[in-house]
Each structure stands twice: as C-alpha cells, then as structure tokens.
Amino acid sequence: MSSDRDAPDLKSPPKRTHVESEKGLGASRIQDGEERLSALKGPHRGALVSQNVLLVSDDLGQRKASPLAASIHSAMGWEAFLRADDPSKERAQYGQIILDFHSPLPPFWDLLRALEGHLLMGGGLVLEGMSLGAFSEAHTRFSEPQAHLIALLRLVGFTVEAPIGDESQDVTACLLSRRGYPRWRLQEVRPEDVNEALELFQRVFKSEISRAFWAWKYGEGRGHSILARASSGALVAHYGASRRRLQWRGQAVLGLQIGDVMVDSQERGVLSHQGAFFKVAAAFQESYYGYTRRFEIAYGFPNHRAMRVAERLSLYKKVDRILEVRWPHRARRRFTLTKSQLITAASYSSGIPDQLWGSMRENLKDQLLVIRDGAYLRFRYRDHPEGGYEGYLITHRITRRPIGWVVLKEEEDHVRLMDIVARPQEISWVIESVRQRFSQTHQKALRAWITPAQMPYYQSPEAQVSETDIEIPTHALTRGVPPEELEGRWWVSMGDTDFL
Fold first, then answer.
1. Nearest Cα to Cα of residue 45 among 95, 115, 101, 113
2. Is the alpha carbon torsion for 184, 178, 148, 271 positive or negative?
C-alpha cells in the first residue's frame, strides 16, 4: 500500500480537460471552475446512469456494453452500484465517479467500499449539488449532512481539489482525488473483524472479553464501531458505542454510550490529529453523531487521563462527574415500613418495572438519564451473558405498593448498587431496605455511583461521599445538543456502564 508521501504528482497541466492516468484510462481531471462545471453537464457524462450515481470513463462504448454497465443501468439506486463489487461480476475501475447529491446517498462505509473497488487511485470523485457550507475543515462543528461526508472523505485519504461556485450560488460541485492510502485504513467493524477486536482488547486492557459479551453489546444493531488498520493490515485501534434510549427534557431520544476505546500500545505515541485514536474517534462522530445524524446525545465514562487526551484533541467536552457513595455495614437490623423480595427472571416481564419507571420518569423531566423501563432492565441485567446480578422488589409493608426495583452485584468486600428504579423521593427507603436485608447475611458495605445532582436523594447521616477518577463527557467535534445544556443534568448508576 502506498502512502501520501509515495503518491505521484497528478496535477494536470493548465488548459487541459483530461489527463491520462498511469494505468492508461482517462482520469477525468477537470481543471478550472467553469470548465469543470460545463464538463460535468456535457454529453460525455451520460453513460452508466443509475438513480444516484454516474460513472464516467473515456471508453464509453466499451463500458456501455459491459455486464457491469448493464447491471448498474437496469437496477434501482445504490444497491446496484454496491452489487457491482460482487466477485462474480466484472470489476471495472473508473477515472471518475460522479455522485449526485440531489438524491439520498448510501451509508458512508458502504460508499467507501464501492469507491475502493471502482475508483482508480488518483482518479476524480465529483460531488454535485453540494452546499458551500460543506467545505469547512474536518474539525469544524457541522450543521449540514454534506459536510459530514466531506470530513469523512478527508479522514480516509481524499483531498479536496476544488469546489465550484460562490456564495451567490445555492449549489455547487466539488472535485476530490485520492492519491494514496493514508497511514491508517478506517472501516466499520464487520463480523469477520470481531476476533481481531477481541485480541486487541486483550492486548490493551490485559483481560479477556468473551465473544458472547461482545455480541450482547454490538450484535443485531445494538452497537456501532470504527476500527483502524496499519499498512500491514493489523488492527491497531477501535472506537465503539452502544445504542441507548435516553430521556431528555421529558422526551425520548437516541443516544450513544461510548465504550471499548482502545489503541495498540505501539501506536499510542501518535496522540495527535494524525494519530489512530483521533482518526477512529473523529470518523465515529462524523458517521453517527450530531443533529443531522441518527443520535443526538453521546456520552461515556473515561478516567481522568483518557479524558485529558480527548479534550486536547477537541473530541470531548466534560459535562458531569461521578461521585461514589458508601454506606457501611449495619450491625443490627431496624424496623422499617418496607420489605424486599428476590426478583425472578419472570418478574422482569411482570409490568412492575414499567410502572416504577413511569413514576420515576415523571419526577425527573429536568434530568438526562437512560430510560429504565422493563425492556431495558431485561436486556441489561436478566439477559447479560455474564450476569452475576441480583434483583429485589421493594414494597410497602402494609399497603404492598411497589416502591422500588433495585439491582445489586456482590463483590469480595462490598456490594455494588447497580441500579434503582423508583421515585426520587423514595430512593432513601429503597436504600434503607437493601441495607436491612443484608445487614446480617452479607456484612458488607454498599456502594453506589451518582452525580452531584443526585446527592439530595442519596445522602444520609451514614453516607460517605467521595470523588472518583471518572468523568462524563459528550462529543465535541460535531454538533449535537450543546454541551452547556447537558452540564450538571445527568442521572447515572453503576449499571449505566458496560464494564461492571
């Protein structure tokens, strides 16, 4: 594979519309603004047309009669273009591919695979119908979908040769070229990449993650990942996230919980905008996050060191922090108006979790939190492939009214309070009931994670509150909900993580 440094100089001499590529096919390099625009509208463009794509080559007659041309011309939309990469069909490469932005484009990573199969190295990629706002630098916070595409193309090694148009025009065209492969080859994670991702996890974190756990997080559309490969083909970086349904200002929105951010130790020295970490993180944000993307809010739980690196690269902005609350072991039982009963697997589908979540949701409309309904609790705790959780239903001793749903995980020297679903005003009852149940059997301290906004509901005379090394950021490279609107509004639990 070649790098940008090894690529030949493909600049064309002035006043020429076409130059010959080094492989002998016309590389359709269009020179100045008006010549470029007129060439795009000229009669030689009218070959191999499908709904969303125009492929241009100098030997139009031959291409027109080819099986590849027929398959593209007769099928609908981008699906045909992507099918043309099938090994059973002709693998033609073109000096120029023109994309029409007046029609919907396919997902970027599908598009990139098609381009790599059919666009000559050094050839031209022409984007028509582009807004001038799309030509901002890749680090700019974008508001237009087209700009995400430009930024992603830059990240994977394309260079913007020249946009056509000025501020008085509503649309324009843009010519890009790819003169060599970048140092890092980026792609979405595919099923065949999972074994390498698991090996990278073991190298980076010095612990193993099971294939079942990986599938639980990312399988069946539950997560998304971008990886980077070195020129040798070795996987050196991974950036992933799981889908989450969030409540924000009383409304349900789609969010991304970042996890499994890992870079091979031999590549960690390149902590710059040219490094593997920045490339996978930036490509992830451009692909999935922002007002023009599927997900409006992104967040994670990095430690202080990881957070500082991401902040220096303008990838993250801090919006909250994690505190730990510890309740010591209670030596003697006390009478309370609540009682607890062990939750069975069938209890998760009883309707009680949804009832409790409804009460909690109505009281936390000003907070940002994961939607803790029955479907989420079943997935997160009951269906977790490695489990180890115990659930308890807390009810009123006299009225038998459900008060709270609590999930615990016992460790060697303490019990983790993984989750509570209850009205905020009754959380103290839930905690007291848990402490009562385990005061004699477990004889261990109870620990929970909260944010400062949760403190009034978790504080008690025996509660010991301390800072942790964990912060909550949101993405800062692309434009989603402004970080300042998220500051101090998070409601979290230990169960919000994917590593406990």
1. 95
2. positive
List, for residues 6-30, the tens digit of each pLDDT value.
Answer: 332 323 322 222 222 222 222 233 2
Q: CA-CA distances (angstroms) from residue 186 to 92, 160, 393? A: 23, 19, 46
In this structure, the number of other CB atoms found within 10 A of the CB of residue 171 comes to 13
User: Is CATH 3.90.850.10 correct for 325-496?
Assistant: no
Strand, helix or coil at 75? Answer: coil
Residues 6+ apart with CB under 8 A from 265: 203, 204
Q: Are 226 and 239 in contact (CB under 8 A)?
A: yes
Alpha-carbon distance of 448 to 417, in angstroms, equals: 5
Give 185-299's CATH code, choosing from 3.40.630.30, 3.30.830.10, 3.30.565.10, 3.40.640.10.
3.40.630.30
- The beta-strand segments (E) located in 185-222 are 185-188
Per-residue pLDDT tens over the stretch 160-198? 876 655 555 555 667 788 888 888 899 999 999 999 999
